Amino acid sequence: MPGTCVIGLQWGDEAKGKLVDLLTPGVEIVVRYQGGANAGHTVVTGDEVYKLHHLPSGILHAGVTNIVSTGVVINPPTILEEIDGLQARGIPVEERLLISDRAHVVFPWHIAEDRVLNTRLVRGESIGTTLRGIGPCYRDKVGRSLAIRLGDMLRDDFPDRLREVLAAKLQILGSLNGELDPDELDAEKMVQEYCGHARRLESYLADTTAYLLDAVEADKKILYEGAQGSLLDIDHGTFPFVTSSNSSGVGIPAGAGVPPRWITRVLGVIKSYSTRVGGGPFPTEQENEVGDRIRELGKEYGTTTGRPRRCGWLDTVAVRYAARLGGVNALSVMMLDVLSQLPEIKICIGYELNGERIGHFPSHADDLRSLTPIYETMEGWEQDVTGARSMDDLPAGALRYLERVSELVGCPVEVVSVGPDREQTIFVSGSPLAVSS
Ligand code: IMP
């Protein structure tokens, strides 16, 4: 039962794409199971940099089937642009990709709605979405009456369905007093464009649920690639400052259609510090020169939106919570090289809330905002680690840091990344993939 998943244990951007790309040669199928074009996964191979939004990071490898499964929301022009961009660089995407016909479609009205609602404050702050229409599309999926799935776009009644939904959406958007671009929401123009997109996407569409169920029963090796991070999970994250899907490990069975018993190994990915983009509580945020330094050293600017990321110390209370939630077996610690330049490193080991020390991750955003993190301070190692290829190459201070993180989170560290390239990776004891039964 070789099913491995890679999930982020923070607020996204943990460099999961690099890890998935590295593990892909050991699997037959890679699956993206939630989120949409809000994700930005960067894969670096030599001089080439690939930025992926919808497509699984395994797409760069020959002989691997990449699946965008039912739980993902798809923006047709964006995914087509991504496919075209890769094909222009010589990647035969047409041989490697399947997209679920059950996946829901992001339309221009979702993006318009995201723009209008993102200006509203929730608990005094904007959610700061990526403005990709993700939340409105998932809202329609749950609401059902105004939803359109990819498979619907190939039906004869699609033009009428699109006109009908658009008319309802214009009424709703009108009542929200948002500024609408009439050209962007013109029914006949949209019918033409989206029928064209449907024709181009048709050859990729498949019943990926059936495909994956056959694959697990045939004992195929599968890698599930989480997008965003566990603390952005709609049910278990820092609500309402979250994304609209289950971005923790709990999203895999629902999003891929694969029962949990086929998921045998969970790799939790963290940065050696913390970042967050958009609004919401961030207990260990450093709005000072430490945060600025981390941002510059780690080039912490959003892949999808280019926004500067908020930066701070590693929060092991939050990561431990996410690791337990995801049933994580092992940790992958990314961007260790960024800490090399800091003389002193802090780790958050607990919280104080209303004068009391607590060990759990509070469920309410206001509590997360008002708590005080408790830190342990370690001496930095101040040595370049970008050339390290085994644990023996790491300075004693870096090893101490990794040991402490493992102890506080309660998981062994199996992968350490010391730079963006594929080779700048240490596998502590061989491949961390699930072993075939
Ligand atoms: P949405 O997913 O666009 O609705 O955005 C909701 C929240 O999730 C915002 O704070 C975004 O900045 C954050 N978010 C969404 N996708 C990502 C991601 O891939 N990395 C980091 N943050 C993300």
Q: Strand tally, please?
A: 20
Q: How much beta, percentage-wise?
A: 15-25%
Unreliable stretches (pLDDT < 50, length at least 5) are none
Average pLDDT, rounded to a whole number, is: 95
Present as ligands are:
inosinic acid
Helix content: 25-40%
Q: Biggest sheet, in brief? A: 10 strands, mixed
Radius of gyration: 22 Å
Instruction: Strand order, main sheet: write it out.
Output: 9-7-5-2-10-1-11-15-19-20
Secondary structure tally, helices:
13
Note the overall shape. globular
Which SSEs are present, and which pair or pack?
Blueprint: E1 3-8, H1 16-23, E2 29-32, E3 41-45, E4 48-52, E5 65-68, E6 73-74, H2 76-88, E7 97-100, E8 104-105, H3 108-118, H4 134-143, H5 158-175, H6 187-201, E9 205-206, H7 208-217, E10 222-225, H8 251-256, E11 265-271, E12 274-276, H9 289-297, E13 310-312, E14 314-315, H10 316-326, E15 330-334, H11 336-339, E16 344-353, E17 356-358, H12 365-370, E18 372-379, H13 396-409, E19 413-417, E20 425-427
Parallel strand pairs: 1-10, 1-11, 2-5, 2-10, 5-7, 6-8, 7-9, 11-15, 14-16, 15-19
Antiparallel strand pairs: 3-4, 12-13, 16-17, 16-18, 19-20
Helix pairs in contact: 3-4, 3-5, 5-6
